[in-house]
Amino acid sequence: MRFNIDDATVYLLDKDKSLSHEMILCCAKAGGGKTILCESIAQEYFNKAKATVIILGDPKSQCEWMYQSLIPTDPNHLQQLKNIGREPKSIPCIHYEPYMDFIPKTNLPKIKFYTFDLSKFGKTDFQAIVETDSDSEIIRLLTSTARSLRGDDGLYALMDKIKNSVGKDDIVRKEDPNAFFVKASLGNKRSLGDIASFLLPYKDHYFLASPSCPLNLDFPSILQDNEHYHVFCVSHWVKDEKVRDLITLFLLNGFMRAQSEAKHPVLFVIPEIKAICPAGCTGYKKFLSNGIKQAMSLGRASGRKGMSFLLDSQNYSGIDLDVRNSATISFFGELGGLTDISNVCKSLGLNMEMRKKLTKMDYDFSFICSLMSSDRDVILKPLFPSGGHCEEYMWYYDEVKKQKPHEQQSYLELVRIMRLRYKEEFNLFKVKSKESQIKHQEKTDINKRKEKIKQTKDLLKKGYLIDEIAVELGVSSATVEKYIKEAKVLIKKEGGNIPNTSDNPIVKRTANKDIIRLICLEKTEANKEGKKCSLRMLEKKYKISKSVIADVLKDNLKFYEEEVIKT
Questions:
Q1: Each residue of 83-98: pLDDT tens digit?
Q2: Helix 155-166 vs helix 412-461: angle between axes, to the nearest 10 degrees?
């Protein structure tokens, strides 16, 4: 890596030393030049090591790294390039954005919208989504179900398969053919509700897709392409902070799963690492941070052609301690806080003179490096990148429109196609859900009828008559007669005597007698006094259907009217 020291170009590492398997950390306050430094280092990897450069994340939502695809126009930038004899030149970049249903209707620069194949997701991906440990039932349920997705199976299919796995019982155990046909716990109803709530944001951000989705990222192809910068931005259109953060994890895990396909050294650039790996984090960031650290450790340990990571942050102390300690090379510019300055000095064993420089450097965009001896007053200045740089007064979409107006295009057709895919999946499971509800209702009705018939059978055995059974069950006499036919069949099967229900005298049993007596007497008194006493009023008062009350009055009212006259 080349730097300026006292206007001379020097190599921090030997010219011939490999740049692979490094973990580089760059820290400086806002405006301290850490992005310039990272852009310079990335260009060294790109030009010297012929590495595939992949930028993951865009914390400021300004497409900062896409300025490398533009020719620099800032006067200071151009002067710096002239001083080092570097020609202003754009670097070929591919701009990636996660697919969203609300892509603006206006023309945009050339963007490769992408989705993730949901069937490839692993434990760390789902851990961060549902904020649960990897050994929990929910994670096992999600990972096993995701692996079973095929063809057009997307989010709705995932939830449908989980719903079928959980079933009706609180905890279901099925013989799993993938686990030696051992009965294993698959989850519970609470798991289903939790999973649904965590996945809801991805209905609007439709980038968790089916295996057959044409926008799914081809991770091996990207790893094999060392002729472009691959810049994965998360634009300002995505407002959900968790969704924005997790995209970086999904991307990194996807590349780790495909790392054996790499044919060149790879440099991953992660801007503002503190945002996704903060010290002392809780909630989803705890699982996000652990996933990022695990992926970075895996990449450095087993990358076929060498995987390096270039991280930057405005705050050193706020970065997770494991990330800080894993850095093989650290650069420090002007720092904004006393805590940061104190921690860096302790870490590097810097003298008082160097401590002062961390507060105010002699030159703009200057750094000290952990590789330099602590007793040497050496300040490094990065070589400005040949490509453009994001200045405070710039907005990427305006700049790219000026330099590349021919690349402006509409994405309405893409939105139409993706909406159609989503609508087909939605309608498929809408119909399936309706059919399921109908079947469930039919099953419920059958079970209710069976229960009523059983009750009818028991009441018949006790000598209850049709009107009595109707009052007891809260149904009409006509319905009771249907129940009696089936109840008699059950009694006959059981070898019992079938009672005679043809007679219909006034009931003698206490419970039903009291109800019928009250109804009949109230109706009789109302008729005598000329008051209104409709079936609806009696239904509301006694909680018995109008048809049952009508049958009761028809068969018993005359008897009670005579009884009132006698009294």
A1: 888 899 999 999 999 9
A2: 20
